[in-house]
Description:
Radius of gyration: 33 Å
InterPro entries: Cdc73/Parafibromin, CDC73_C, CDC73_C_sf
Family: Belongs to the CDC73 family.
CATH topology of the domain at 287-464: Rossmann fold
Keywords: Nucleus, Transcription
Helix content: 25-40%
Number of strands: 14
Subcellular location: Nucleus
GO molecular function, one term: RNA polymerase II complex binding
Amino acid sequence: MAASTSNALDALDLIRNTISQAADQPDPLASIQLFDDQSAPVASILQASTVRIGDASFSKAVTTRLARSRDELAARLSSNNPPHPDTEPSFFYSVEAVILALQARDERPGAYLAQAATAKVASFPTLDRAAILDYLLGKRDDWAGVLKLSDLSAAASAATGTSALVSASNEAPTSSDAQGVKRPYKVDLKDVEYVKRVKSQYEVVLRTRNDALRGNVAGLAGGAAVSRVAGSKVADFESFRRAFSAKVEAARKAAGRAPPPGSAQSAARPGVSASGQVRKQRAQDPIVVLSSSPTSLLNMFNIKQFLEEGIFVPPEEARQRARGVADLVVSITSRGGNAGQGAASGVGIGRRILVVDSAEAVTRLGGSSASAPGADPWNRVIAVFTTGQAWQFKTYRWNEPRELFKNVMGVYVRWHNEPQNPNIRDWNVVEVQVDRTKRHTDKQAVSHFWRQLEFWTQRRKPHLLA
Length: 466
């Protein structure tokens, strides 16, 4: 490691302090300088080998006090066995991983993970990424995954004691050992307390159905077996249950009651509970299908910003921002009432909408319940975007355009100064026009789309409204 231990301990604080001092600048990382092997300045941490912050210079491989897992760090601290960056570098993030996450702070999770995986650099967990970035940028004072300096000193002393113990064990054997006399085993009280704490706090006792039929009693009549386990009397109702199960089943059939849950008869009636009542199906999110055509103005890269914020980003520009990595499913937040969808339009269907760009993705959203009656995911599709090309519908449930747009709302998006595709003149579609340069008109187009979608859903599929 090219840097000293002091640099390793202070690297995290140096980065945070430098960013906090440059909070009013456009780029908070401007004060962090990166140099390659020839001491030439570079822009990306992946090309650099040395990091310079003020008068301090250290290698990008220096280990920080930021742990990769806050849960594992908490477990180590609770067991009085804190890790140390020098002895366990794989337990913590390096300076390279921290600065890479800061440089990619505006990237989407998929693009950031792909970049880190390509460079073989440890990445922040997706669920904790925002909180860790807020800590590094000074927006929050602490983070549970950071090893405190007080715990670091304790880890250093523990590492020193371990080194001394190892060196002592490597010394020459005593005369009694040379004669083959076995030394008595000494119980480590710390290990005993640690095992007790793990068993009391974290050990999970697995119970089966037969365990639930047992109970601690002083004695039991009626033929139930009583055994002695771990010094206490335990009643076993298994023989009692076997003797009366046939009688109970015969009485249930005579009374005309439904079979118990889990039996073969109840399994033959899916969707019906033990009391004979039909279970209510859970409300599922509606689906919007985009066109996968390369000429489509709206794709999986720019649809979220267009429908949620009312801002149109050209598809190629949006693709470059995402580094060509698109999400399989895009979640759109549709609000109703006065929440303001499409820039204060106040329209929407009032719930989350899932956006995909293929028939296969629609089928996957149906999950394992897609084969059940009435659970076809195409019944949740409320809108289909088209560029006017009929090949798009070959794999759809309704592959004929006129039949398709009887069951879903068709949407045709085009530039305002381009002629209309002649194929859509006979299709029942809603037209949305996007201006090439006037971005202030995007919100008006988005508001028109949400208003038409809300009106169509109220008439055709009101059960999908919030």
